[in-house]
From TrEMBL:
<dbReference type="InterPro" id="IPR055592">
    <property type="entry name" value="DUF7168"/>
</dbReference>
<feature type="domain" description="DUF7168">
    <location>
        <begin position="291"/>
        <end position="389"/>
    </location>
</feature>
<dbReference type="Pfam" id="PF10979">
    <property type="entry name" value="DUF2786"/>
</dbReference>
<feature type="domain" description="DUF2786">
    <location>
        <begin position="224"/>
        <end position="263"/>
    </location>
</feature>
<feature type="compositionally biased region" description="Basic residues">
    <location>
        <begin position="1"/>
        <end position="13"/>
    </location>
</feature>
<dbReference type="Pfam" id="PF23771">
    <property type="entry name" value="DUF7168"/>
</dbReference>
<dbReference type="InterPro" id="IPR024498">
    <property type="entry name" value="DUF2786"/>
</dbReference>
<feature type="region of interest" description="Disordered">
    <location>
        <begin position="1"/>
        <end position="34"/>
    </location>
</feature>
<protein>
    <submittedName>
        <fullName>Uncharacterized protein</fullName>
    </submittedName>
</protein>
C-alpha cells in the first residue's frame, strides 16, 4: 500500500472515530448525519423544553429550590414567545401521558393514581391526573380495556373536555382559575409524583391487553349470588333495628360461606385449578388504622391475607377471586354498620371538659374490629370442627389446606418484608361501645352452612 493510500485510510479512521464520539455525546445533527463536517447537534425547541421539564422534576426531587424556580420560569415564559408557549403546553401534556402510562406499567390503576394525587397534594392535582388518563385512553379501543378499568374511568368521569391538546394548559388554568405560573408548578408536582411511585402488583390486564376472552369477573352463578348478597347487606345497612341488621348480615355471610365450600368441593371433584389474585381496597381518613384492622380480620376469616399500604391509603388483599369478592362485600357492609352505630353513640367530655369525640371513635372502631375478628375466628373454628366430622371431609380439608398454602405463598412473594403497627385505643367508653356494637353484628352464617 502506497504512502497516499495509507494517509487516506488513516484520515478515514480518524473521521470514523470522531463520528463515534459525537454520536455517543449526541452531537450529530440532521444536517450532518454522518458527522463529516463537525457541526454540533442543536436540540429542537421541543427537545429543549422536554429537557427543562426533566430538570424541573429532578430539582423537585432533590429539593433544589433555586433550580426548580429557574425551570418553572422558563416553562412559564416559553422559549421564543407565543410559539414557545405552545411548545411547552404540548410537551407538558405529552409528559403527563407518558408518566401515566409508565405508572400503569408499574401496576397502578386509574382510580389509584387519582386518589394518591389527591392525598399527596390537592383536588386540582388529581384533576390533572384524570385529564391525563382521559387523553391517554384515546389510544385504546373499548374492547381492549378491562371491565374494571372501564368502571374506574366511568366513576372518574375521565373525558377529554378541551378542544385541542395544545390548548390544554391554558384551558385548565381558566377552568380552575389558576394562572400560568400556578399551572406549571402543579403540573411539575404531578409529574414528579407519577415518576416516583413505586412498582406494585399488577391487578388485571393493562389497556390494550384485554380481550373478549379475558376473565374479569366471577362466573354467572357467582354474579347471581353476589347480587343476592349485596341486596341482603343493603337491607342490613338501611334498617334502624339491630336485630334485622343481624339477620340480614348473617344470611349474607351464610351465602358467601356456602359458595366457598361448594366451590372447593367442585375443585376437589373436577381437579379444576384457579390461582390466587390480588385486589386493592381504598380506605380513607378519618380513622384509617382501625378501618384497616376491620378489613384485615374479615380477609383472614375468608381465607385471604391483607397488608396496609399506609402512605397510599389502600390495603392489598391476596386470595382466590370468590374469597376476595366475599371479603370486600362483607367489609363494606360491616363498615357501614359500624359507622352508623358509632355516630349514634354519644361520647362524653373528659374531666377537663374537652371533647373526646376523636379518641372515642378511634377506640370504638378498634374495639369493633377486634371483636369482629374474635367472632369470625370462633365461627370458622366451629365450622372446621364440624367439617372434620362430616362425610366429605376427606375430600374437602386437603383442598382447603392447599388453597390456604397457595394464598400464603403468593402473599409472601408479593410482600416479603412487612412491619407490624399497633392501633391505639385509649378511650374506655369508646372501646366498650365498639365491642357491644360488634356483638350485635351477629355472624353465625358459617355454622348455619355446616348444619345443612
Amino acid at each position: 500500500m502506497g504512502k497516499n493510500s495509507r494517509e487516506r485510510h488513516k484520515a478515514k479512521r480518524k473521521a470514523a472515530e470522531a463520528t463515534q464520539r459525537r454520536r455517543a455525546t449526541g452531537k450529530l445533527g440532521p444536517d450532518d448525519p454522518l458527522g463529516l463536517f463537525g457541526v454540533p447537534h442543536v436540540p429542537s425547541q421541543r427537545q429543549s423544553v422536554e429537557q427543562i421539564i426533566n430538570q424541573a422534576i429532578h430539582a423537585h426531587d432533590r429539593k433544589e429550590t433555586a433550580e426548580l424556580d429557574r425551570c418553572r420560569a422558563l416553562l412559564t415564559a416559553g422559549p421564543g414567545g407565543a410559539v414557545g408557549i405552545q411548545v411547552v403546553n404540548r410537551a407538558l401534556l405529552a409528559c403527563l401521558l407518558r408518566e401515566v402510562e409508565h405508572a400503569w406499567r408499574r401496576g397502578w390503576q386509574p382510580a389509584e393514581l387519582v386518589r394518591v394525587a389527591r392525598r399527596e397534594y390537592t383536588t386540582q392535582h388529581s384533576q390533572i391526573v384524570v385529564d391525563a388518563i382521559a387523553a391517554q385512553m384515546r389510544s385504546y379501543s373499548r374492547a381492549a380495556v378491562d371491565q374494571r378499568w372501564q368502571s374506574q374511568l366511568t366513576a372518574l368521569d375521565a373525558q377529554v373536555w378541551w378542544e385541542h391538546d395544545d390548548h390544554y394548559v391554558t384551558a385548565w388554568g381558566e377552568r380552575e382559575s389558576v394562572d400560568r405560573v400556578g399551572m406549571i408548578a402543579t403540573a411539575i408536582e404531578v409529574l414528579h409524583l407519577l415518576a416516583t411511585l413505586p412498582p406494585i402488583e399488577q391487578v388485571g390486564p393493562m389497556p390494550g391487553a384485554a380481550s373478549s376472552t379475558t376473565v374479569t369477573a366471577p362466573a354467572d352463578l357467582d354474579q347471581r349470588l353476589i347480587t343476592r348478597v349485596r341486596a341482603l347487606l343493603a337491607k342490613a345497612e338501611s334498617t334502624d333495628f339491630p336485630e334485622e341488621a343481624d339477620a340480614f348480615t348473617a344470611k349474607a355471610q351464610e351465602l358467601m360461606a356456602r359458595h366457598r365450600i361448594d366451590h372447593t368441593l367442585l375443585v376437589a371433584r373436577t381437579g379444576a385449578r384457579d390461582q390466587p389474585a390480588t385486589r386493592r381496597v381504598s380506605i380513607d381518613n378519618p380513622y384509617e388504622a382501625p378501618k384497616t384492622l376491620l378489613l384485615q380480620v374479615v380477609a383472614e376469616a375468608n381465607s385471604c391475607r391483607a397488608v396496609w399500604m399506609k402512605r397510599f391509603g389502600f390495603t392489598s388483599i391476596v386470595g382466590f377471586p370468590a374469597d376476595l369478592e366475599s371479603t370486600e362485600l362483607l367489609f363494606t357492609s360491616l363498615l357501614v354498620q359500624a359507622t352508623r352505630a358509632m355516630t349514634q353513640a354519644k361520647p362524653d367530655v373528659d374531666k377537663n371538659g374537652r371533647n373526646t369525640t376523636r379518641s372515642f371513635r378511634q377506640s370504638f372502631l378498634t374495639a369493633y374490629a377486634s371483636r369482629i375478628g374474635e367472632r369470625l375466628s370462633s365461627a370458622t373454628e366451629e365450622v372446621d370442627r364440624e367439617m372434620t366430622a362430616s362425610a366429605g371431609a376427606a375430600n374437602l380439608l386437603p383442598v382447603l389446606a392447599a388453597r390456604d398454602d397457595a394464598v400464603q405463598v403468593a402473599f409472601e412473594k408479593q410482600f416479603p418484608n412487612l412491619t407490624q403497627q399497633a392501633t391505639a385505643a385509649n378511650n374506655r367508653a369508646g372501646w366498650a361501645s365498639g365491642r357491644a356494637a360488634a356483638d350485635r353484628a351477629a355472624l353465625h352464617g358459617r355454622q348455619a352452612v355446616a348444619n345443612e
